[in-house]
Structures are given as C-alpha cells and as structure tokens.
Give the backbone structure.
Amino acid sequence: MEKMPVKIQPVIKPMPLVIVSCCNKDGKNNALVVGYCCNCSYNPPMVMAGIVPSRYSYPMIKETGEFVVNLVGEKNKEAYDYLGKHSGRDGDKLAELGLKVQKGSKISAPIILDFPINIECKVIGSLMTGSHEMFAGRIEYIHASPEYTDKDGNIDYSKIKIY
C-alpha cells in the first residue's frame, strides 16, 4: 500500500477532554483546559498533564506540586469551552461559571464537583518537551459521582457521555 508524507504535527486523536484545577500557596484556585493528558504508570497509578509555561496555572503547579485532573462529561460543555478561552489572570473563572469546588481530600488543589470524575495528583517529576512541561502526578485520591461507577465501586467510563 502506498503512503504519502503529511505535515508534522501532534497526531494522536482523539485528545482527552480534561480540565486541570490547581491553586497557589495562598489558596487562590484556577482551572484550565489541558490537551495533553494521559496515564503514564499503573504501579504506582500516575497521570501526566502538559502545561505551557506561559499559562496562569503553570506557576501554581510548580509552587505547590499538586493538581487535579477533572474528566469532562456532556453536562460540562459550557464550562469546558469557557475555561479553554479565558485566563485566570482576568478573574476567577470558577466563580464566574458558578462551579462548585472543594479542597481535595489528600491535596490542597480544588476538585470541581460539577465534573463526573476528579483525580487528585501529587507531582513527582516533570519534563520539558518543547512547548509544554509534562507534570507526572501520582494519583492520591479519586472522586467519582455515583452514577459513573459500577456495582464494585470502579469507574464505568461507558456511563460518561462526552459532548
């Protein structure tokens, strides 16, 4: 089969729909859309999230070493779109959207209660990959809305409808 060259670009699709939430040492919360996020270890369970250093949340994660990956469901389209288009430098995005937040169970970064799954992470290392710093976060705690779990208490991803 014949192949042809194409433009070099990030090509793994689909990209996950996630919001990363964080706070600074003074407790100021923020959240942003993150296009580069994935599992990176099963033992210990870890995820990786890529943040551009110019983003408002970047120094918060560097300062505290914590972040939360919030998985997006179909009810979160408006919040996802807004959080991806506005900067926390210009105001409290979470308050402007009326999102309910609470401090994590194991870390200080906020979980966004309006999202179906919240994954609390403690940074154990990072790597500059070009445009992004990839933060490897050990999973410290996972919150799941009951309607997204199975009878054994596991996340049932088939129940999370993505818009």
Observations:
- The CA atoms of residues 23 and 108 lie 7 Å apart.
- The helical segments are 58-64, 77-85, 93-97.
- Strands lie at 18-23, 29-34, 37-42, 45-51, 66-71, 101-103, 110-112, 117-128, 133-144.
